[in-house]
What we know:
Layout: H1 3-8, E1 12-15, E2 20-23, H2 29-37, H3 39-49, H4 52-63, H5 71-78, H6 95-99, E3 116-118, E4 123-128, H7 146-150, H8 153-158, E5 163-169, E6 176-178, E7 183-185, E8 189-191, H9 200-203, H10 209-212, E9 215-222, E10 226-233, E11 241-243, E12 248-250, E13 255-259, E14 264-270, E15 275-277, H11 279-286, E16 290-293, E17 298-302
Parallel strand pairs: 1-16
Antiparallel strand pairs: 1-2, 3-17, 4-5, 4-16, 5-14, 6-13, 7-9, 7-12, 8-9, 9-10, 10-14, 11-13, 15-17
Amino acid sequence: MSQDAEYNAAIEFYNRHSGEVETEDVYGEGFLRWAYGNPLGRLTVAVAVKRLWFSKWYGWRMDSPKSRAKVAPFIWDYGVDVDEFADSVESYSSFNEFFYRKLKPSARPVDADPAVAVFPADGRHLGIENVSLADSFYIKGQRFDLEAFVGDAALAREFEGGSMVISRLCPVDYHRYHFPVAGQAGPVDILAGSLRSVSPLALRRNLSILWENRRARTLVDSPEFGKVIVMEVGATCVGGMHSTFQPGVVQKGADKGYFSFGGSCVTTIYQSGALRLDADLLEQAAAGREVYAKMGERCGVAVRPD
């Protein structure tokens, strides 16, 4: 397959619930392919789309009362399950209120085993066994710059050789994110950056988007897993990353925050030897695919010392 064909291939993922490989229905696919695959599109991204003002402007539009008219068509077009909602559809006064809706607690049960780490969000998850050695992120030959991503050389050294889960949320997903492990959570550190798409259509061409975009970093000291980094990554048309927790003791599955309109991702990094990722994550990553799963479902287990 040529490089252009790899860049432009359909996005496939493994659905843990159905056991099938499926093709993603990409929201705004035509624009994304133009913006990241066309020279004029890339210029537009550089001049306007990646700028913070553009996403703030789009977020403002999604907060306006007029945006409420988009809710019902969106639910219909993407088959969103309204039975999971904590509030009625009629209660949302804007599209953004619908977008970062809360769900009934029963809609996302959290694996109760203390030795189990869970996905922090609904979405498509890429499991990386060793972040220091991997060279296949969405496409062959891409290496991850851990130091640039976490924004701290000393912290990066603590996580060398560790495992990572990139949990990518599409606009059609539930957009609140949660703690993947229990422990003592520190404050949120905001790392400045631009706002470009985190769709594989963009990341295949430039993985550095992940460490050039705006990020929100939290350290969790877990009894079972040691130090864990939980990092939200902003993206185009994400009006904001809104933290809802207070530093201190947190439970696995507890609310951490929510994204305003747009797709984005939450990245969880574990220290070397702390987590054994589930087999389906490793198998699908080897094939260049993410795994679709929901918040609260198991992604791996703690490695017990001998």
